Every structure is written in structure tokens, then in C-alpha cells.
Amino acid sequence: MSGDLQGRAVITGIGQSQTGRRLGRTGFELTIEACKKAIADAGLSVEDIDGVASYPGPGLGATGMSGASTTQLHAALGIKAKWYLGASEVAGQLGPLMEACMAVSLGFANHVVCFRSVWESTAQGSGGFGGSFRGSYRASGFMEWTAPYGAISAANWIAMLCDAYMHRNGMTREQLAMIALNARRNAGLNPAGIYRDPLTLDDYMSARIISTPFCLFDCDIPADGAIAIIVSRRDASNGLPRTPINVEAFGGGLYERFTWDQRADLTTMAAHDAAASMWENTKIKPTDVDVAELYDGFSYLTVQWIEALGFCPQGEVGKFIEGGGRISLEGQLPVNTHGGQLSAGRLHGYGFIHEACTQLWREGGERQAKKDVNVAVAAAGGGPIAGCILLSI
Amino acid sequence: MSDYKSPETRILPEITDESRAFWTGGERGELLIYKCLDCQGLIHPPAPACYHCQSINVAPRPVSGRATVAAKTINVHSFNPAMPSPFSVAIVELEEDASTRLTTNVIGCPPESVHIGMKVQVEFEHYEDVWVPVFRPVAS
Ligand SMILES: [Zn+2]
Q: Which fold has domain A9-124+221-392?
């Protein structure tokens, strides 16, 4: 093993703010709500918190993509931090949480509040996404290479990669639909779901196309909401109310350049690197995983994570998800048991780890997986952005 | 389709020292791609070092402009009203090195006719100080 945490990092509490469409609340307010809930859930008080970590730091410009930075939350709660981090140049949205696991494992902090907040729904309601490209705007960064071609949405970039995967491996839209249908069914059982009405294959196949092969239901929905996770040093978790969740391993590998269109194999993503590096750090095997909470900013990203994490052979995800049985709550590998971002809102990665903990604590209620849940994986990111975490109880 | 008209506007790139050759080579009809002058490897997007051999002896050089479609989508949703949908967006592989790819538009044909394996050839669309490389199917 190369990155052995030796059980020294645990999760002791989780919190989710009010979540929904156009709540009209600030991202800052939602962040504080989620963090206070998580701290209370862990049985701690603000005075016990000595670390703060969040994504994306101050650097990600798009409107509504961050409700509060690490230092803003730190100031708002008056935290005496011994360790803190806010960053986007990390292993995906979950990267700062992985860093927090390292910090507590090495004794640099006892209890780190890790959070992610978004208020894209409210922000875009007042002229966000399309509006940022008007007038004298010129595209920079990765957008320099896509925006001149009208490909300003990740929907376009990921649709092309999905197209290449379908072309090579024969995955069909009917198979891909199962990611969206499964998410919707689970959201219907989740009181915090946003879209909870049943979705049929007919609805999916007749939905308007966004960017081929993606229809409306392959794309997640902007939301307002925040999630916080308390990462604790195991030795500091004695006497806390919850059974600590063990952070067994994580992976954030990036083996090729940070681009969306230059990876040697266009049918894989950095998810494959992150997953490979995670499995190097544990004796647990893919077949030991009871539930998988896998990023679905676009349905195809879940397909990528299923393959990357080794739940089926490369190229065969279409068959694996066909009919939706295997990935359902009753199946061998329940996936996105809360409804994912497709039906429970784009909380940008943190919804998955929140739900993995919920399932491990067997608090899923109607949406609890029907099997015994002892090992869960949470993964976030797409394209060159990737990080995954393996949890056990 | 000979009746293809380039869009009235495009979102233009913020040209950097590294990307200037790519976005302006079209003025002379050249598709300029960064090349490592030590190992001859191509590098795109342009970067100050060669990812094949770590050399910093890199510079833009012309390529043939012939390429093959490796992935494609038809953008249908109107993300940006300035560019009327539907239109084709594709990833094309350069003839000189299939691992060097451009995200681009395939133009001059119905978007639904664009397919993986389609042979295409560069041409340029001029806006302000930018010559945007786009690709048109090669008549078979
Ligand atoms: Zn070289």
C-alpha cells in the first residue's frame, strides 16, 4: 500500500442546508446553515473546530459557483484554525476533503469542517450563465479552445466524449437513460430531492436534445444549497455521539494533461486515474463496495465512474446498467441513492459523500439500500477533474 | 453545401503569447501548431514545454490542416444566442499525429452528417484579430 491512512481519519458529522431551486437566499447563508448543522451533528461546538477546508477557493469565477470561501466561513464562525485550505487545483471537488483527511491523520487538526456551497439557481435566475459571454468578453483558460466554437457548456465537451464511448462500445441511449431514471426514482424517495415525479423511458427518449446524445434529463440542474462534512482525527472522536465512519482510502490521480480533449484514450477520463490510485491504497476490492455515489453532473460521468472504479469491465457499462436493476436500491450496486445531481440538485460533488455517510449510518429511510451497507464509495468530477473516497463502517 | 455562411459573431479568444500563432496563422492560410524542435512531437493546446520529452525548445510550425473526426456532437440548445443552433462541434485528430486534437466546428455540411472517421480539411473564419480554424469535409 502506498497511501495508508491507517484508520486515523474519520467522518463524525454531516450537514445539509435547505436545498432547492431559486431559494433567493445567499450562498453565504446556506454555507453557515450547513456548517452549523454538521458541527452539531458531530456533537461538537464551534470551539472544537480547528480546521477548515473547501472547494473551489476564491479562484472559480462563474456566478453562483461558490457561496463562501474558506476564509469567509472561518471569519463568520470565528474559528481558531490550526490548519485550513481553499483550493480548486486539487483532485476535484472532494480534493480539499482528502487534504483534510491527511491533516487530521498527521495530527495537524482534530476536527475539520469541509464544505461546498452553490447558489447557481438564484444567480442564473438573475442573468448568469449566458449573460457572462456578451459584449467585449474574450474566452481564456480552457474556454479559449472551446468558446470560439460555440461549445461554451460542459454539456458539449462531455457529449462528444460520450459519443466516442458509444461509438466504440455500442452503449445506447436507452442504456444511458437508466442513470437518469434511477436517479429520479431515488429522489422520489428522498424528502430533500428536487425533481421527484416519476420519469419514464418514454419521457426520456422524447425529451428535447441539449447536445447530442444528451437530452434534458442527462444534464444536472443548477441548485442553491450547501453541504458540510466534519473530518476528525480518530483519537479525537472518542465520546462523540455517532459511530465514526472510517475513511479507508482516497484517490486523486491525474496521469495525463489537464484537458478535456487530449487524453490518449477519449473513452476514459481522469476518473480512471483517481480510481486506480485509490485502489492502490486499500485491500478492499470493488466487489466489496455496497453502495456507490457517483458524480452525475451529466449522466455519462456516472458511466465513467462505474467503469473507472472497476464495477464492470472496460467498455461494458451499457450492459451493466441496462434495465436499471443492478444500480437500483434493490440491486447489487445501488447507485446515487439520493437522486444524484440529476434529480436532487447540483451540490457539486458533496451530495455524494453526504449520501454515502447517510447510507453507512443506515439513515436513508425509504431510499436506504436494501442490502447491508458497510462499504461505500463517493466520487466527484468529470474530464480531467476527479477524486474518489472509500468509506467503511 | 455551398450556401454555408460563417456565424456573424463568435466568442473570440483572449490571445496569449503562446496561442497567438494558432489564432492568427490563418491570415496566411496556415494552421500553426506547437512543435517540439528536439523530439518533433506536437503539443496542443500550446504550452511552453514539450510533454513528450520535457524540452522547452518548442515553437509553432505549420501542419497540413488535414484531420479526421474523432468525436462529435450537435449543439441544439441555445447556450449562446449569438451562434444559432443547431451546429456541429467536433474533436478532430491531426493527420500528422492522431493524439493531437482540436475541438472545432465541422462546417459546410448538415451537422447530422458529421461522423467519426470523417476526413476534414481546415479553413479559417476571420473576426477582428482572430482567424478561427474550422474544418470542412473533404469531398470523397
Ligand atoms: Zn519533445
A: Peroxisomal Thiolase; Chain A, domain 1 (3.40.47)
